[in-house]
Amino acid sequence: MSHKDETVLEVALRAGIKISHTCGGNGTCGTCLVHVRKGLSDVGPRNEIESEMAEDRKFLDEERLACQTPPIQGLEVEIRLKE
To answer: In which domain, by residue range, is 48 found?
Structure first.
């Protein structure tokens, strides 16, 4: 069960799932970018930090920062690992 104000990044790391996050989860590096496969309409709009990054880097609608996205019930994301 997730705690209030947690992010997808925090839940994933606690579960032992590695997601790059070079800025420490502050939304400034973009390395925790995930692809939302299910539940995008329930996540809600991007916050200010994520909106600025998304505009600058031209994210697709379904691309979100794990460090800024709430881990809502039914959310399914794809982590694209860098090689």
So the answer is: 8-79
CATH number for the domain including 39? 3.10.20.30
Q: Of the candidates 70, 65, 78, which has an alpha carbon nearest to the alpha carbon of residue 24?
A: 65
Nearest to 53 by CA among 79, 76, 33: 33
Q: For residue 5, with 0-12 CB atoms within 10 Å meaning exposed, 13-18 middle and 19 or more buried, which class applies? A: exposed
Q: Considering the domain boundaries, does residue 40 fall inside one?
A: yes
pTM across the whole model: 0.90
Q: How far apart are CA 12 and CA 35, in angstroms?
A: 14
Strand, coil or helix: 49: helix
List % helix, strand, coil for the chain (3-state, nearest 5). Answer: 25, 15, 60
Which tops the pLDDT comparison, 83 or 47?
A: 47
CA torsion, points 12, 19, 57, 23, in degrees to nearest 10? 100
